[in-house]
Structures are given as structure tokens and as C-alpha cells.
Amino acid sequence: xxxxxxxxxxxxxxxxxxxxxxxxxxxxxxxxxxxxxxxxxxxxxxxxxxxxxxxxxxxxxxxxxxxxxxxxxxxxxxxxxxxxxxxxxxxxxxxxxxxxxxxxxxxxxxxxxxxxxxxxxxxxxxxxxxxxxxxxxxxxxxxxxxxxxxxxxxxxxxxxxxxxxxxxxxxxxxxxxxxxxxxxxxxxxxxxxxxxxxxxxx
Length: 202
Hints:
three-stranded mixed β-sheet
């Protein structure tokens, strides 16, 4: 776990144990790793942020490949505003996502057969039938990529996160945006996705 989350893994492990949920992988005390995104039943998105240690990610990759057929791995600028993958990439549905590409340093496509550097990330995702809508620097700092997709055409988001241009692009794709002002949630110090736990998506 990263420095800012020290000790949380012990609490979560105990809670999962009490619930009868098995632990599939455990990091040790020297590891820094704060999560990843599941894009599909076969694809995982891992961003090596300031809350990760590259050695911890590399140690985790072989295990991930026993559960998923591929990994999209991105090395990210190491600053706080990019601390988690969902600060840079947010999947709305199987064919559309919000992204902040300026934070990406390098990206790789990893499978059991090896890894290949991704030169043009937007084109790479387009070839996988996923269109990327870029958010601005200001939007990224207001958690634009971190939202809750209610279903394939509906997203729940902070009313401060997206500008009119981005909303217009989303509306043109048939996406409904349910907005609310995050007064109480901002006190929790996290983005909308970080502060929620989806148990079942319709």
C-alpha cells in the first residue's frame, strides 16, 4: 500500500475474512500499490502513479495475467493530482471513455506473449472500438475522469467536473449526465468513484 494508506490493507483483510471473502493476492509491507481498473472480463488497466512502486506493479503483473488475458499498463507523471488510474481514465461504456492523455508518459500492451509499447494510445483504443473523449487540464483537476456509470448511457457526476464542450460531446453520443454538487463528498478528500462502491451495475 502507498504511504497515505498505510494500515488500511490490514483492516480490509480482516473485514473480508469476517465476510468469508477469500484473499486472492497479498502485497507485502514494502509494496506500494493502490489499485487498477477492470475494463472488461479480459482487460485490466494499470496506471503506475505516485501511489505505486514500479517494482510492486511488475511483481503483480504475472498474477494478473492468470486472471485476465491482457493488461494496458501506463506509466504516469508522479504528482498527487494523478494519484489513481481513475483520475486519468474513466470508462463510460464498452465504446466510450473520458481520458486525460497529457499525464501519460508511456503505455504498453501486456499479454502472456510479452509486452509491446503503445505509440498512439487514442488509436490503440479506437482499434478496440473504444472512442476517447479528452478532458481539459482544468476538468482533470476537478475529477472529470472519476464518475459512476449507472448504465451504458447514464453517468452520475459532480456538477463542477465537466465543461460545456465535454458535456456536448457526451450528449451527442447519447449519454445522460446526472449531476449533483459535491459539498459533502469533497470533505472526504476523494473523487466520486473513490468514495463509492458499486455492488451491482444494471
